[in-house]
Structures are given as structure tokens and as C-alpha cells.
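Backbones bend. We report:
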Amino acid sequence: MLTNFSIASLVLLLVLGFAYYSKKHLTQAQKDRSYRTHLIDQHIILETLDKDTVIKDVSSALCRFIGSRKTDLIGKLSHFFDNSDDSQHLENEILCSIQTGKEWSGEVKNFDHNSNIKLAKSTILPNYDENFQVQEFTNILVNITNKNSQVLIN
């Protein structure tokens, strides 16, 4: 017959085993999440904006794409990375769309300090709070510079 001490010891071993198993899996899940976050940062051209279109965060891939540093971008107005002659008109079009909660999609042109052009397909999505009020925006860009290089040469 098992004594109270034996039962308590067995229960304690089971609890410790479960705690070890849980901690091991949580640690692995955190490593997996960290790795996925790193992959997104390095390979997806992405920015997060507050509802006034001030840049909250940018990916390293975006910094490489436009040739800038995160510290130079965060806290500044986005202007959606279009610095072409048509940028003011495009910015107004984007703002009219996204500030009403509608998604915007289109092309943006960014000229670097050497006047080289970078083209991107931009999709700006509103992010809502629990009351379905727009709280921020996510801008996902896809580099299409090489796809349009024949059009630029002609």
C-alpha cells in the first residue's frame, strides 16, 4: 500500500515532469517565433504607421530597399516612400483611401541619392482595434524595379 509520502512524491514528480515538458516546448516556440520574426524583418519590405501616418517601425528589408536606416525613418511622416514628381498627388490619394478604413494598392517610385529609381507595388492595410476603429496601418511593398526595367529603358 502506498503511503501518503509516496503519493505526494509521485504527484510532485509528475508536476515537475509536466513543468519541464511545458518549459521545453515554450522555449522552442519562442525560438521559432524569433526566427520567423527575423525572416520577416530581413526579407519582407514592410512598415507600420500610426493613424497619422507617422512611421512606428520598418523592416531591415525596407531600409535596404530605400537605402536608409531605421533611426532615420522611425518617428517621421511616411510619405509612403514615393518621392517622384507625382508624390503629393499620390499621397493625397492614399490618405483619402486609408483614413476611411479602405485598403490602398498601387505603385510607388523612390529615387535614391544617386537618382536611381526603385519601383514597388505597395499595399496599405488598416489595422483595427477591438471596436473596429483604425489604429494603425501596415504598408507591404514588393520590389518590382527589375520587372519594369524594360519599360524604363524605352
In short: The chain has five helices and five strands. The two ends are 91 Å apart (CA to CA).
